[in-house]
Specification:
The complex is a heterodimer.
Chain A lengths: L1 H21 L6 H26 L8 H17 L4 H23 L4 H21 L9 E2 L7 H28 L1 H11 L1 H6 L4 H27 L1 E2 L1 H4 L2 H14 L6 H19 L4 H15 L4 H5 L7 H11 L2
Antiparallel strand pairs in A: 1-2
Chain B lengths: L1 E12 L2 E12 L3 E5 L6 H8 L7 E6 L2 E2 L5 H7 L1 E3 L12 H11 L8 H14 L15 H14 L4 E5 L7 H16 L3 E5 L3 H7 L2 E6 L2 E6 L1 H5 L2 H8 L2 H6 L1
Parallel strand pairs in B: 3-8, 3-9, 6-7, 7-8
Antiparallel strand pairs in B: 1-2, 1-4, 4-5, 9-10
Helix pairs in contact in B: 3-4, 3-5, 4-5
Classes of the chains: A mainly alpha, B alpha/beta.
């Protein structure tokens, strides 16, 4: 079973990588832009997976890291004339420092309380950025324009975002083989028991939150530079948090590739629906998400790896297990 | 030689005194039993040693160091492991992974990387007789195996002292005998042990010394024979018919 699962995963991964590298050279700008956006959500969902999936702390404010990454880059590049190659890591580090600062009080909370507190942090940050001089308040801030033809710009951002995604996935994969991963999962499964086994739970939770923030911050930096103009409403939008959580859950939380699959399926589905049903697409989209969660509450990954059945039996089993 | 010592420890929750001025000492290589009726404060004592609670007054001394206000993870790392009365496995992990976590972060954890920790976990699984269940998920185990897993996790940390909080509750006679045998085997490997237990047959056979709690206060301390024939203990805990039953 496990063997078959690993092989399937390997094949899927190989196809994804080859397709991912080849596609931009055969596609138009629209497709490349769409895929860059999908990759960004894959990064956000995978980063959310570190704190929400592996550590078991469902953050409802992870968009704050995207926003901080975006604004760190915007301010550094526009006001200080820093290049992207410095602004990008600075954004990641800035977002993870914020995660450390905010994590120290907030990670003491659990479950719903943690979710609400993180939601509050993101909203408060939006209000703060809206009123600061350095961020140019609610009028938004422009970023320098790139000196490249449009098509090449699109390809550049596509591969940059892909690089960030690859880094997120590789770091997550390595983390799982190390003590950090075992410690985080132990915290998710039973925090008190993890503590008495010698896991420094506070340090581990903050590390996990900081990693999650780091990758989201990198995504924010690239997003801001590609957009060329950002506003607090768009980069601190709570809807983005909801989207990354739905993607992670649909793809399979607590698995490395799950959030990537979730992001791809959700983006493709919502794009197709928008094309066919301009007005009612959110209705259909909602229905699909509900059906998906009911039939595969552990995510697409669970079906692919062959661990669980699919269909009516699985639905009934889930109703028993989760009391839907 | 005393390895773990409680000096005058008291714990109050609001107006309730759960543990009142209790002194105890665990000698190196010894098995010390702790008995008492429900609500006597036994688990509270374990929680104070392991750092889950901090005593209101009094001190916990481990190898001459005052560890009274240490956090739980730090206490685990200096060499005191514990088990939970209501078992706390990591349900989504396999048995091997559960035990590995203990090996990774316990007293010996600093010297082991994740791969070596898993190897250490294999040894512990063999020692505790769980090797056949290594790949099962922890929530697929039965009660006896779950209790054994608690022991294995604590042992994998490489501790000098283990606090066993009712690891035999809910087991049948054969399983109790196996658990007693395992506890003795652990002592023989050089670990000092504090055992909390309601099962008289087990505690009598396994303990070198026993101390008895009643309403948070210590009412007796001595060898099993002394303690179990003590009038106060019989009145508070064992019941008047106990003497007739054992004779």
């Amino acid at each position: 079973m496990a063997q078959k699962g690993t092989a399937t995963k390997g094949v899927i991964l190989g196809i994804l990588i080859i397709a991912g590298i080849a596609i931009p050279f055969f596609s138009g700008n629209f497709i490349i832009r769409f895929l860059t956006n999908t990759l960004m959500f894959a990064v956000l969902a995978s980063a959310w997976n570190i704190i929400g999936g592996y550590t078991g702390y469902a953050s409802f404010g992870n968009v704050v890291f995207l926003g901080i990454g975006a604004y760190v880059s915007a301010v550094l590049m526009e006001k200080e004339g820093v290049s992207l190659w410095l602004a990008l890591p600075a954004s990641g580090i800035g977002a993870s420092l914020f995660a450390v600062l905010i994590g120290m009080p907030v990670l003491r909370l659990k479950g719903h309380y943690f979710a609400i507190a993180t939601l509050g942090v993101a909203e408060a940050m939006k209000a703060l950025v809206n009123n600061l001089d350095i961020t140019e308040g609610n009028s938004g801030i422009y970023l320098p324009v790139m000196n490249l033809p449009v098509k090449e710009q699109y390809i550049f951002f596509y591969f940059m975002m892909m690089g960030v995604l690859a880094m997120t996935l590789v770091v997550t994969y390595i983390m799982l083989k190390k003590k950090l991963g075992y410690g985080l999962i132990a915290i998710r499964e039973d925090e008190e028991a993890a503590g008495s086994l010698g896991v420094n739970t506070t340090l581990f939770k903050i590390t996990s939150f900081a990693l999650s923030g780091f990758f989201s911050g990198l995504a924010g930096s690239l997003y801001a530079f590609q957009q060329g103009f950002i506003k607090p409403e768009s980069v601190f939008d709570v809807g983005i948090t909801v989207k990354m959580i739905v993607m992670a859950v649909l793809g399979g939380i607590g698995s490395v590739m799950g959030p990537l699959l979730g992001a791809m399926s959700i983006e493709v589905i919502s794009e197709i629906l928008t094309n066919y049903f301009l007005v009612a697409h959110t209705l259909f989209f909602g229905a699909i998400v509900i059906l998906a969660i009911v039939f595969t509450p552990k995510g697409i990954m669970d079906i692919i790896s062959g661990r669980k059945k699919f269909g009516l039996n699985y639905l009934l089993q889930n109703i028993r297990d989760h009391r839907i | 030689m005393v390895i773990l010592e409680g000096k005058n420890i008291t714990k109050t929750f609001g107006g309730l005194t759960a543990v009142s001025k209790v002194n105890f000492a665990l000698n190196k290589g010894e098995i010390l039993g702790l008995i008492g009726p429900n609500g006597a404060g036994k688990t509270t004592i374990v929680n104070m040693i392991s750092g889950t609670y901090h005593p209101t007054t009094g001190q916990v001394i481990f190898k001459g160091i005052n560890i009274t206000n240490y956090k739980p993870y730090k206490i685990g790392r200096i060499g005191i492991s514990r088990t939970y009365q209501i078992v706390k496995p990591f349900p989504g992990m396999t048995v091997r992974e559960n035990v590995s976590v203990g090996a990774m972060f316990g007293a010996q954890g600093k010297n082991l990387n994740s791969k070596q920790s898993i190897e250490k976990a294999e040894e512990i699984l063999e020692f505790t007789g769980l090797q056949d269940m290594a790949d099962k998920r922890a929530d697929d185990l039965n009660v006896a195996s779950r209790k054994r897993l608690e022991i294995a996790k604590a042992l994998a940390m490489g501790p000098e002292v283990i606090l066993f909080d009712e690891v035999m509750a809910g087991l049948n006679f054969v399983e109790i005998d196996n658990a007693v045998e395992l506890i003795q085997k652990i002592r023989d490997s050089g670990v000092s042990i504090l055992v909390i237990e309601h099962v008289m047959r087990a505690i009598k056979g396994v303990s070198d010394r026993i101390f008895v709690l009643h309403h948070g206060a210590k009412i007796a301390d001595g060898t099993p024979d002394e303690v179990l024939n003590d009038d106060k203990v019989i009145k508070a805990y064992l019941g008047r018919r106990y003497k007739e039953l054992v004779q």
